[in-house]
Amino acid sequence: GAVVSQHPSRVICKSGTSVKIECRSLDFQATTMFWYRQFPKQSLMLMATSNEGSKATYEQGVEKDKFLINHASLTLSTLTVTSAHPEDSSFYICSARPQGSKDSPLHFGNGTRLTVT
Amino acid sequence: QKEVEQNSGPLSVPEGAIASLNCTYSDRVSQSFFWYRQYSGKSPELIMSIYSNGDKEDGRFTAQLNKASQYVSLLIRDSQPSDSATYLCAVSRLRGNNRLAFGKGNQVVVIP
After folding, report:
1. Which of A45, A48, B8, B72 could form a disulfide with A58 if both were Cys (CB 3.0 to 4.6 A apart)?
2. Which of these, A38, A39, A56, A58, lies nearest to A47 by C-alpha position?
3. What is the widest separation between alpha-carbon atoms in chain B?
């Protein structure tokens, strides 16, 4: 149980275009989902907390107008990288925990490898 | 000072040996501690969670937590080549709080 699906797994886009990444909880509901970014040889860095039905909470230094987050339902959160640039190339990973299960650890999606050319 | 530190470099261990990984954290009030395994190009998968001082064993893995000294460790017994991966230590301030702070990870290479 507690499967998190992320799509696409890989995407290559041109500089200046936008890319949307989907994160779905397949067998549970999640009022909160988390978006991380990981550059090569570095740790996971939390970008933002996605809240169902309300605005996302962004970490310091993360541009909310560049990384648009929408959490329209209890099973889906999307991250849109707008006007992508080569420095946005990274591994983006979402995570979630079943609603109401405070003590269970986070479950991660399989990640999206974004390459901006 | 970083929130979560994993300072040791790549760890090479022979197959069947014990791999020992350490992690320290700066926030004294942290309550939840996790070890994740991450294979190259993949997302992290949970190995262990620990919330109380002492040892917690799960198969070949043992997590050790010492809140007074602010460290958490992971032992991998009878290391297998499939254990070769990067191991990430993660800490959250409140039990049930989803905001995890990750260490940079320790690479483990198990030599057949």
Report:
1. A48
2. A58
3. 41
Q: Do B74 and B55 contact (CB within 8 A), yes or no?
A: no
The CA-based angle B49-B91-B100, given to 5 degrees, is 105
Measured CA to CA, the distance from residue B88 to residue A19 in angstroms comes to: 28
Judge: B98–A32 Cβ closer than 8 Å, yes or no: yes
Q: Tens of pLDDT along A46-72? A: 999 998 888 999 999 999 999 999 998
Alpha helices in B12-100 (DSSP H): none
- Tokens encoding B50: 């620990």
End-to-end CA distance of chain B: 37
Identity of the residue numbered A101:
S
Residue B1: the pLDDT is 65
